[in-house]
Specification:
Blueprint: H1 14-28, E1 33-37, H2 42-52, E2 58-63, H3 66-77, E3 81-86, H4 95-104, E4 110-114, E5 116-117, E6 122-123, H5 126-136, E7 139-143, E8 162-166, E9 178-182, H6 184-191, H7 204-212, H8 225-241, H9 243-263, E10 267-268, E11 281-284, H10 288-298, E12 304-306, E13 315-318, H11 327-341, H12 346-360
Parallel strand pairs: 2-3, 2-4, 4-7, 7-8
Antiparallel strand pairs: 1-9, 5-6, 8-9, 10-11, 11-13, 12-13
Helix pairs in contact: 1-8, 4-5, 9-11, 9-12, 10-11, 11-12
């Protein structure tokens, strides 16, 4: 029986696991502890919520997209009182809105926010939000799964206590492994919470006690080896290109998509460029699901998707992240869209090319 070389590997050592962990810390520019969790990013996100929230606590849950709803449900399930700060999904929250919510509810001790919403195409001003949250004294959890690698992410400078990332979007890696940076304030909060998960796959405290505090000499359980190696390859690739260049490439892809879509007569779902995420561009398109199906039938490789839920009939998303953050994938998506809309692609391709060149050389 033959074996595939990728499946015939020696076990991942604790030393190599710790090296990958240091690579993630370097990517985030953080001096805080980093825990690499062996699953999709919902694992550390739920672990953070259930470790940081408890009966009697009050949480501010900023809702700028669908994940905010999920966080609110977890927080309520933990027994916390939840104050939802909802803004229209085509905009971003502001630091002033967060400050006002904190002033109205001085008992808030936990704040959750999504940095970039790939599902809706918006991005939030984390630096300003972090400043007011830290001044208030609350613990600050950030979902940076879609933003890491696509736009600046500085958890320590921004006062983020829990910064969760995944590798499957701008990093161009696997979905089956994720990570979270944890501040000393967060560890203390977790340890003081009798309801925090312990002896559980959701437990971040288990990783601290059995891995970090134990000197990282022995892994608590068998790691997801192939996913860990893929994460390591992502980190190496980003280091070789340079993180600023990776972020600039995503910004150029967003600018090219926006310009090309405008040439097709399509309106961006997020009107303000300053509030638009560089990881994905969302567009207002009638009969969106039908248009996407037609576009993908003609060009299956186009990085297009219809909006989720109620947005399926009115939103098209161009997912220009990871390897797709380039002029070629953007132009392929625009060509497929033009075909589905029965219009010429030439103006869109020209506009995208010009925007890419202008942004790339800026």
């Amino acid at each position: 029986m033959s074996t595939h070389p990728l499946l015939d590997l020696p076990p991942l050592t604790a030393e190599r696991f710790a090296s990958i962990e240091r690579g993630v810390a370097g990517l985030l520019g953080t001096g805080q502890d980093v825990v690499i969790t062996q699953g999709e990013a919902l694992l550390p996100l739920e672990g953070c919520v259930r470790s940081g929230a408890r009966p009697g606590s009050t949480a501010l849950n900023v809702v700028t997209g669908p994940y905010g709803t999920t966080f609110g449900n977890w927080l309520r399930d933990c027994g916390a009182r939840v104050v939802d700060l909802e803004v229209p999904f085509h905009t971003a929250v502001t630091a002033d809105l967060v400050a006002e919510a904190l002033e109205r509810n001085p008992e808030i001790d936990f704040v959750s926010l999504v940095h970039a919403e790939a599902a809706t195409g918006n991005t939030n001003p984390v630096a300003g939000v972090g400043e007011v949250v830290r001044a208030h004294g609350a613990l600050f959890m950030l979902d940076a799964v879609a933003s890491v690698g696509a736009e600046p992410l500085l958890p320590d400078a921004w006062g983020v206590d829990l910064c969760v990332i995944g590798a499957q979007k701008a990093m161009g890696g696997p979905a089956g492994v994720s990570a979270v940076s944890v501040s000393e304030r967060a560890w203390a909060r977790f340890a003081a919470n009798p309801a925090a998960p312990r002896r559980s796959y959701l437990s971040l405290l288990d990783w601290k006690e059995r891995w970090i505090d134990a000197g990282r000499g022995a892994l608590p359980h068998a790691p997801a080896q192939l996913e860990m190696l893929a994460l390591e390859a992502c980190l190496d690739r980003i280091a070789a290109e340079g993180l600023p260049a990776v972020e600039a490439r995503h910004g150029a892809a967003a600018a090219a998509t926006r310009a090309g879509a405008s040439a097709l007569g399509l309106e961006p779902y997020v009107p303000l460029v300053s509030e638009a995420a560089p990881v994905a561009t969302t567009l207002r398109v009638e009969r969106a699901a039908e248009v996407v199906a037609k576009a993908l039938a003609a060009e299956p490789s186009a990085v297009l998707a219809a909006g989720g839920g109620a947005l399926a009939s009115s939103m098209v998303r161009v997912n220009h992240y990871g390897a797709a953050a380039g002029l070629g994938p953007v132009q392929t998506a625009l060509t497929a869209l033009a075909g589905a809309l029965a219009v010429s692609a030439a103006p869109a391709l020209a506009a995208a090319g010009a925007a890419w060149s202008a942004t790339s050389t800026a």
